[in-house]
Structures are given as C-alpha cells and as structure tokens.
Amino acid sequence: MGFRIVGTGSYLPEKILTNFDLEKMVDTSDEWIRERTGIRERRIASPQEAASDLGVKASQKALQMAGISPEDLDLIVVATITPDMFFPSTACFIQQKLGAKNSAAFDISAACSGFIYGLVVVNGLIRSGKFKRVLLVAAETLSKITDWEDRSTCVLLGDGAGACVIVPHNEKTLLSYTLGADGNCGHLLFIPGGGSRLPATEDTVRNKKHFLKMKGNELFKIAVRVLAESALKVIREAGISPEDISHFIPHQANWRIMKACAQKIGLPLEKIYVTVDRYGNTSAATIPIALDEAVREGKVNRGDILLLDAFGGGLTWGACILKW
Ligand code: COA
C-alpha cells in the first residue's frame, strides 16, 4: 500500500521585503544578494501572525483541493523550527483552529528537511493501516528568529507555509527515499538560547542568543555535496535515470546551491522549480510551497516523477522520488 497527495496548499504573508528595503537596514546591496543567492524578495509575517496562522491558511487550501473536511482528518503532522510555543505543539494549534477534532497531532523538528522527514513518517503511519486522512504541514516564521542587524543571515530568510492532504492509495507512489543526519555539524546552523541548555535571561536577550546563527560558506559546500548524493541515491534505488524526472523540487536556500546540485545530478536547469527568488529560504516550507505552486500552475500532473531533496540544520537531509 502507498499514499497519494490529493490536495496541496500554500500561504505567504502579504508583506514583501525587497533587497532594496534591506539596503536601508544593513550594509548590503541588491546586486550582492541576487548574485550570491538568487533572492530578490521575501515575505514577512505580521507581529500577530505565528507559524500556526500561516499553517492554517495553507491547510485550508489543501483541504479544499482534496474535498476533505477538517473533521475527516485523523492525523496532523507539522514540520517547523519556529513553533508558536515550545508546547503545545504547533500541530495542536492548527488542529484547534481548523476544528479537526478527530485528529491526532504532533510536530517534527528536522529544520529545513522537515517536510521530507514528515512525508516519510506519514508514509509509515499510513502503511500501518491506522490513518486514512493525514494533513502534513510545514509552517515557518523565520523572520521572528532573525537578527536584522546580521547581514550574513537576514538577507536569506523568509516566512511561509505549505500543506498536503495525504490518503492511502493502492499504487506505490513513494518510489524511494533516504533520510540522514550529522549532529557533529550542528554548530553550523542553530539558535543558542531559549532551550534547556541556555534558558532565556536578560543576558541571553542582550547578547542575541535567541537568533539564528549560521556559518553560511561552510554549509554551502556540505549542502551541494549532500543534496547531490541523496538525489543520486534515491534515483538509483527507484530504478530510474535522471531523464525520467519531470520536476526537481529542491529545498530553496540559494539558487547557486540548487544549480550546482542539478548539474551534479545531470538534470537540465529547466527542470528545477524555483521560488527562492520570490520567497527566500522558508526552511521546511520551501518544498511544499513550491509543490503547491507547481500543481496549481498545471506543471505537475498525475504520473509525473518528482525529485524532492532537502538539507538543513541538525544537520539533517532527506530526498525522495515521488510518482505524482
Ligand atoms: N551583503 C554584502 N556582503 C556580504 C553579505 C551581504 N548580505 N553577507 C556576507 N557578506 C560578505 C562577507 O562579509 C564576506 O566579506 P569578506 O570577504 O570581506 O570577509 C563576503 O561577503 C563573502 O562572504 P561568504 O560568506 O564567503 O559569501 P558566500 O559566497 O559563501 O555567500 C551565503 C554567503 C550565505 C549566501 C552562502 O554561503 C550560502 O548561501 N550558504 C548556504 C546557506 C544555507 O543554505 N543555509 C541554510 C541551509 S538550509
């Protein structure tokens, strides 16, 4: 038994922050940001909008496409590194706001790889036979953990959410997948404060310990290598060749990473679905947002072979071949 994605949805906050806006905030330029990352603008949540608010709007669109009511859901899984609170889980907030009263709910913490981790977990739970109507959401408000005085990170990040409704299906559609992690490199991308290691104090706030820290150029090299290795592994395990892939939907952190990765896999650049120019890096949400846009634009059709590929903090990574 396999699963099928029968509804997709996404939501991006209204406020657009352009590279030109950032030029007024930190020592940077539109030219530098575009050339080094491919990003032109990103979306920023309002002070009132938390991750669950974005996630609910994306979920409602996915449920509408699927023709499924919230009460029919039996499981909600949310990937996020910017939860509304430590607990309750963001999945519980989304469950409550949707009115999905018959659903179990929990969060997954796998940073930018959260959506692929989620898909693999949902696949297993659906195969158990216990769950029939699952909502997988990735919702991020990275602007709330961004140091707006740090030009090396603030130009990269954005807010947004994507969601999928997933149901059991006779045919196998997850043709192959891989997940990986390397805790030894956790220090390359993390938030030092606010957890049990360094609880919030006046000192942690003054010293900006609650903001995301990143060693971008070290991550860059690892990202290209790991994304390409994972992609080649799932292509091999699915018994297909790169030519069989209709669309490559990678995590959208930097156009240069995406391009280098496609070249290593042997995929033409036209097969990459790109949102990083408009939304920047929205962590776990980049892949389901891109998937939803590609579906709604009619670019992804039943029978298409998709390569999804992600990499992020942890470090974590994951890739899969999905028959749409
Ligand atoms: N505007 C202008 N200059 C900037 C800048 C900005 N926003 N950010 C950094 N710089 C400067 C640096 O200070 C450095 O200056 P120096 O040479 O005088 O020291 C120079 O640009 C080059 O910095 P470097 O970090 O080596 O640039 P880069 O080409 O590696 O690009 C990133 C930086 C962050 C865009 C790139 O490394 C990247 O995208 N890394 C991966 C990030 C990522 O994917 N993270 C999430 C994983 S999910």
Low-pLDDT residue spans? none
Task: Tell me the CATH architecture of the largest domain.
Answer: 3-Layer(aba) Sandwich
Strand content: 15-25%
Secondary-structure class = alpha/beta
Distance between the ends:
15 Å
Order of helices and strands: EEHHEHEHEHEHEEEHEHEHHHEE
Instruction: Give the overall shape, derived from the CA principal axes.
Output: globular
CATH topology name of the largest domain? Peroxisomal Thiolase, Chain A, domain 1
Largest sheet: 5 strands, mixed
CATH class of the largest domain: Alpha Beta
Mean pLDDT: 97
Radius of gyration: 19 Å
Question: Which kinds of small molecule does this entry bind, naming each only once?
Answer: coenzyme A
CATH superfamily of the largest domain: Thiolase/Chalcone synthase
Number of strands: 13
Strand order of the largest sheet: 1-7-6-4-5
The total number of structural domains is 2
Helix content bin:
25-40%
